[in-house]
Hints:
Elements: H1 29-32, H2 56-65, H3 67-83, H4 99-116, H5 126-155, H6 163-167, E1 171-176, H7 180-193, E2 197-200, E3 204-209, H8 216-233, E4 240-248, E5 252-254, E6 260-271, E7 287-301, E8 311-320, E9 326-328, E10 331-339, E11 343-347, E12 350-353, E13 359-360, E14 365-366, E15 373-376, E16 379-387, E17 390-392, E18 398-400, E19 409-415, E20 424-428, H9 432-437, H10 440-444, E21 451-454, E22 461-464, E23 467-475, H11 478-497, E24 501-508, E25 511-518, H12 522-535
Antiparallel strand pairs: 1-25, 2-3, 3-24, 4-23, 5-6, 6-7, 7-8, 9-10, 10-23, 11-14, 11-22, 12-13, 12-21, 15-16, 16-19, 17-18, 19-20, 24-25
Amino acid sequence: MFQNTKCECGHQNPTGTVLCEACGKPLDEKEAGGTDLLEMRYDGAARRSQKADPSIIDQVWNFFSSVKIAVYLIIITLIGASLGTIYPQEDIFLSNMDMASYYKDTYGTLGSIYYKLGLSHTYESWWFILLLVMIGTSLVICSLDRVLPLYRALNKQQIRKHESFLQRQKAVYTGETDNGEEFIALFAKQAKKRHYKVTRTEDALLAEKSRFSRWGPYINHIGLIVFLLAVLARAIPSWQLDEYVTVPEGDTVRIENTDFFVKNEKFTVQYYKDEELPAELRGTNRAKLYRTDAVLYRCLADCGPSSPEPKLEQVASHDIEVNSPLEYKGLKLYQFDYDSTPVLREVSPMLIDKQTGKQYGPFKLAMKNPQTSYELGPYKLELRQNFMEFAIGKDGKPITKSRDPKAPAFIFLIKGPGLSEEGEPYIYFPMQKDKAAFSQDKLNKGIADRFEIKVGSMTDVKFVEFTTFLNVRVDKAMPYIWTGLAISMIGLIMGAYWQHRRIWLRLDGNAVTIGAHTNKNWYGMRADLAAALKAAGIQVDPKSLDNGGNRT
């Protein structure tokens, strides 16, 4: 249906306008004759979400421009985020354990349900990211739906307002004066003393201050949008990394998903003396300081996981302590923890021919990155598989439970005199406990009657005394997150500590009509108006200026 939005003052308003953008008179005939206070939130400007016959695009716009919808989305997101805190998230664990079994064994049936619902990785789930996107969309559309009409309304303010507009403000004064020119001059002078910007004509005046505070909520929205975009940007490859790396003392280890390697040159731990501890803790080892002398390398060539000798270039070094990370171009390595349990690094076993009693070797067998073949007299050992933590899978095949040498095992193919041309497989467990636990001789079947691989003494076994755990972090989004929060805080301060105050004065002969509006702190607004009237020669009680309605 056609709506006539041309005001009697001659100004043509956009469809949907409630108050004339020029004189402020209500455009609705019923509203024009009313006496209730005017809705001044957006100065009555037309908003796209108020279209009478919205299209599909407008309906989507209306959905996201609703503050009620925005509140619902925030509440749903908060509930979803809280669900992610019931049990630990998967990404905090160091080892590659079977997470389904972990949640079931640790937390029972509820833990199993929690894992199956995908709540163990809540913050990376599609539905949580979708909620963040919808909140961001709502912030953008809510802001555009309101800030553009508000800007137009404030930018086109007319000094002389319609009388009904003035009389339906919360603070109103009506009276008479014998000298209108002098009255307006004295009124304006006092308003300027209170830091109002005064614009006047012969028979009207507009005093305004702190208009910038009206943009506070929208600047807050801009900050929140930047914040949400920065959070979502963490999904971009290489923008965010939060991993843990295990580095035995003396080893150089690849940092997964990067081109960097880190070496643990030396690990140092100092413990509190008994006299430094409270009585109840004496007799226990409490770490006072633990430090990793670390060197960071960048890989230049042969960087693949299977490459035996990557070409490395040292780029940084630092003695990493708690709260003193190694930093290099946004990459940070934090001291997370350490383990003083000895870890097997290398053994030097012999190949023993049980039939002749001859021994061949020893040969150096490293737990990590071992050689693939060894020449031992007339025999040759070809390494076919190795397992850092040997276990038998559900299908009966050997698997490794982790990348740390907790139960190392090696499958060799022995070739030489008296053996088949293809060679005979032999599984070797360097640690005696593993030989017994997995029955090495039974696994080797017939070949165990002919050959044995074993070390001669403990001097042929090398252990790593300390293993350090480093937390590797990259977060390129963090500067933008802080920027968004800073912008949001600026918007909050603008809206909280300043109020947009306006006073309109209209002179009709000897009759004076004054209306005043502010978005908050009506007591201060009334006090400003009463002080200006007093300076112009009219003594009034500030309470008498109250025209009813709610005050904030």
